[in-house]
Amino acid sequence: MSSADSIDSVLKETRRFAPPPHFSTDAHLRSMEEYERMHRRSVERPEEFWAEVASELHWHQPWERVLDWNPPHAKWFVGAKTNIAYNCLDRHIERGLGEKTAILFEGEPGDTRRISFRELHEQVCRFANVLRAQGVKKGDRVTIYMPLVPELAVAVLACARIGAPHSVIFGGFSGQAIIDRVTDAESHIVITADGGWRRGKVVPLKQTVDEAAEKCDLIRKVIVLERVGAKHAAVTMKPGRDLWWHELMAGASAVCPAEAHDAEDMLFLLYTSGSTGKPKGILHTTGGYMVHTYLTARYIFDLKPDDVYWCSADVGWITGHSYVLYGVLANGVTTLMYEGAPNHPDWDRFWSIIARHKVTKFYTAPTAIRAFMREGRAHADKHDLSTLKLLGTVGEPINPEAWMWYHDVIGRGRCPIVDTWWQTETGGIMIAPIPGATHTKPGSATRPFFGVDAAVLDRSGAEQPPNSGGFLCIRKPWPGMLRGIYRDPERFVRQYWSEIEGVYFTGDSCRMDEDGYFWIMGRVDDVIKVAGHRLGTMEVESAIVSHDAVAEAAVVGVPHEIKGQAIAAFVTLVTGTKPSDALRDDISRHVATQLGALARPEQLRFTQALPKTRSGKIMRRLLREIATSGQVTGDTTTLEDFSVVARLAEKDEG
Ligand code: PRX
User: Domain 9-510 class?
Assistant: First the structure.
């Protein structure tokens, strides 16, 4: 399907689904009128609204003011002190829920574990003491590079408990990605594992950390969890630097009172791609983020005490931070973690997990849904999915066809779908249905959440009439918003608050229909979403250019049936180097080593020159057209060298 086809199908989409009556009856919010009323109040009197929500949580000390807004700098719950780990653990134990399952874990090989709030609390306290014993103090950045196992949650929550900001790096990233992030964060300690399971193979995480540590002497301590065991991963422990998780835990006290942290203390950094060659450290703080993720999780997933909730995202992404861990645990709900691949040992793994663990709420990515769709419904039909009550999606636009498949085949027509729009920067969900209230339309994330003042604007900041495209912007601060880019305050202002005067610029294009529903069309900047994973064109280009044979490279995103978008790379070689299939493979492999397998280009073409404007800017629109259709149309009058276009369209040239 071409991008034009998919936009066409979204524009023609007129189906509408009322919340299933049986769902609405028991839901936290049951009607559109209720939603409208609450939304109006939340944007007209945000401080009153958010203070009420915040009072449901535990604070060591109350706030003096709910919000200080000096555009573009916001402080929420000013003067308040709290501890998010306390709110995710101790608060529930005190309510008598200590024996309730906090984490329901399934490893890829099939091993399962149930960890109660009491057990999780105990492990978090022990690990907090381990970190302290290793010299980690409040404010020190801790790097976490682990498989999706319960100890990852333990590490994250232990950091939060002692006020040491965590920087979680997705386990699919490479050694270079670790070096970049560790260096930017000036982090001295890395928590990792001997390996993790993926498609029946071991991902050698410790080995990757070793490679990074060899080139990066900032890394002074490495704590290693034994996940796969010596039989499957040979690990070399460097004396003085490397320590076993289990040995440290055995000697650690389980007593660690939750420290009171300022609401605006840094909770974590999460690196994400933007329009430069290096990822940026998105900075989130404690109080506002906690309140935002708590409330969104509660209303959008309609969380109830007996839910078994499963978000299939990795904790290496913001979705895992907010909706595998913090938002869900803050609500005292059981969160399921699955370590491995969706198609291991077969394509029914997810449905088998849902059936065996009686999952009630399931949150995944459109790219996964499209992959399941391709494999056919028989895999899902084999399993009893009747415990499911709600389905969610996140990360990229979902095409109506995939939405309908999800609705009919997985939800069996009974489950509302929440298509949730948000970003690493927003901390929590911003636009999504309230499942018991909102009528859904396949392909639309529907209406803004409470406290979110979203609008579709043009470059001048003027609001666009219904159904005309524009830039999605947020006009008022919200509690979970990023507080900055780590060590780059100027870039924070430039990237998010300067494109359009006075508002937060999301980087997404969007249209709002006549019912006030938002339809996200995709990025307008140099960000590509490959299978929902965010990559910057510049990052991939830098990785390609760092190959010895490459002189110049340009990367564009092209529509991909399953992944949503894929990477197409145009490469010019250094003089004297001959293009070949072997070289193409070698460059692709090089990108995977530099960034991680997810950045590997889908197409890689050699060219003698790249099409540029007179001012030297690469004409990406042309490259996109070439990569998508092999043809070039439209205006090329600003091209520096017209012949380049014709030559590129002829595909690879020698
Ligand atoms: O383009 C939008 C897309 O993902 C971007 C944010 O990416 P990231 O920071 O990696 O966070 C992803 C998970 C929250 C957005 O700018 N995006 C996210 N959710 C949706 C979406 N596009 C369309 N519909 C969505 N529901």
Answer: alpha beta
